[in-house]
Amino acid sequence: MIVRYSACILLSVLAMSMTPTARSAAQEYVAAVFTFGHATGNLTTPNTRYLAAFDGASATSDVYRIVIPRSGTLKNLYWYALPTSTLAGSGHIVTVRVDNLDTPLAATWNPVTKSGANTSSTVVVSAGNVIAVKLALTGGSGSLARPIVSFEYVVTGTPVGSQWTTSGSDIHYNTGRVGIGTMTPTHSLDVSGTVRVTGLQLPTGAASGHVLTSNASGVASWQPVAPATWSLNGNAGIDSTSSFLGTTDSTPVEIRVNRVRAMRFEPHPFSPNVLGGARVNQVYPGVKGATIAGGGSNEEEDLDRNLVFNDFGFVGGGLGNQAGDSGSNPSDNHFAVVGGGYRNRASASGSVIGGGADNRAGGSGAVVSGGAGNQAYGTLSVIPGGERNHTAAAGVWGLAAGRQAVVLHRGTFVWGDSQERYTESSGPNQFLVRAAGGVGINTNAPTSPLTVAGVIESDSGGFKFPDGSIQTTAATGTITAVQPGSGLIGGVVSGVASLSLADGGVTAAKLADSAVTIQKIVPNVVSSLDGVGNDGGNIDLVAGANITITPDDLANTITISSIGGTAAGWSLSGNSATNPGVHFLGTSDNQPLIVQVNKTTALRFEPFVGFDPRAIFAGEVTIGGEAIIRGYTRIGIIINQAPPQDDCNSTDERGRMKVDPASETLYICMNSGWVAK
């Protein structure tokens, strides 16, 4: 056990230290008298014991010690013990030990005086030295009772008592610092431990209603009471006209979860912005009244954040969505809305996208309810959903629905069924339906392109038949006779009538323009043209550009041939001497170029306003060699599902690809079937 030198020892010897011998300004005085002893039973001889401080129990090892707090001298050793029986000899010695070593400060017990003393030897000690007392009983036989050892601890300096001044019943300290629990005080009173008081008065800076607080260094001071705060348990009795949660300047307010932003309120003089969701979600500078309710992701900041570019834009949630365009004027293209979904763009004023994936609403007031890959660029046009439907800029008030329905003209409705091919409008105010299974009215089992279960009524105009005739009224009455007209023979008054052409009955006057069409001539009936001349005959053939016509009146033949040269069009057998800077296959305005097979669109090239032109393949594309694509490539899209296994069965289907943007999965048709990447 180590006992540290403390103020209680000083107080026990205060009377001794108040009157030191005067030598100089720095005096030598007794700082303490250390007492050791054994108070529990007798000590027999021979024996070696280490006495306890403050007259406690002794031990056989050096366990009872005192740590010296400052440099000084140990001297004037005295000890006393009572014999319990006759002890032969006087070799019982008390020795003061410093840091486990014996010192000259030792005294032998005198059996006559029952004591021992050493007033001539001194031991110099330093701060941190550890002292102990050893008692060695070596002579005679018997025992000693209650041995008591004391010696002085003398230091050089100003006595403790001389630093205190009394005035009546008061005592005060003039210089230096007082330490309690510490030997190195840094303030006038330095307490290392807990201070308990029944009252406290700090007059400096005190004022009514102030509270005692501290700075980061622990310096306490009186401060005015801070404004009322919002309690974790809620507040009651507040005045909503003056109490609020927020700022009084132009600094935004953020609400965080686990120290990550979950909600941000940005100031604006007219209408503040509200940003929820991921911390990367952003309202562009200068925009007012914008709302991002949530969504976005901090994982891929540039791709997955939600953005509002223009005033009063709204993004409800989802991932990578944008409301408005990225132009320099935040007041343009305002009121754009994206409800959610994945990477949708509502870039025009008042445009709306409800959800889905990769949809675009680029016309003012255009609406895309959902689906995937839909584009509404016509003003006030609508795409209710589906896949890869399109309303062009000219498709004002248009509606495209289903799959790959394209509106190119105003006021037009186009519906596309599940076939993977585009159906496009050819003029304004059309109602077009691509339905391979037929259209049924009042029936769900159409047997023709249009099946009506009911009456078809015409208020005006009548009905047009395949032969071009128009029936405006229904036939009534009774046929009484059939008489042949000019150029006809036959006819009857009753019975079955038979009419035929009379010889010479067909004249030039009888043939109206376009009256005889190829559909009206039975195949192989007309195999040659007899009597046709190019020099005043009944039929004139006029040669077009790069074409020659050579008639042979004797042989009754006409030879038609090409004269070559720079062609005005692309020949079926190829063209020569073309200039790639002038000649091209395509359009010279903003109309798309369409390639058809069997009168069905197979490939479509679109000008795609605002971006590079793009090519849209209606079906599957097979590339045998190398393909260099400088723009974006979009392959078939599916949403939250794998492609049908029936689309990856045969060998020629290997290499097909589909992509699911919702799960960010690419499917490739391999020998084993669809493989997800």
Model description:
It is built from three helices and 54 strands. The protein is mainly beta and about 675 residues long. Among the domains are: about 160 residues, Jelly Rolls, CATH 2.60.120; about 120 residues; about 80 residues, no CATH class. The strands form 14 sheets. Strands 19-20-21-23-25-27-29-31-33 form a nine-stranded mixed sheet, with no helix packed on it. Strands 22-24-26-28-30-32-34-36-38 form a nine-stranded parallel sheet, with no helix packed on it. Strands 1, 4, 6, 8, 9 and 11 form a six-stranded mixed sheet that branches. The longest helix has 6 residues. The protein is rod-shaped and about 185 Å long.
Largest sheet: 9 strands, mixed
The backbone outline, from C-alpha atoms, is: rod-shaped
pLDDT averaged residue by residue: 81
Here the CATH topology of one domain equals Jelly Rolls
Instruction: Briefly note the structural class of the backbone.
Output: mainly beta
In DSSP terms (H or I, runs of 4 or more residues), the helix count works out at: 3
**Number of extended strands:** 54
Distance between the termini: 73 Å
Q: How do the strands of the widest beta sheet line up side by side?
A: 19-20-21-23-25-27-29-31-33
Q: Give the CATH level 1 class of one domain.
A: Mainly Beta
Cα radius of gyration in angstroms? 57 Å
What is the CATH-assigned architecture of one domain?
Answer: Sandwich
Strand content: 25-35%
Low-pLDDT sequence parts: 1-26
Proportion of helical residues? under 10%
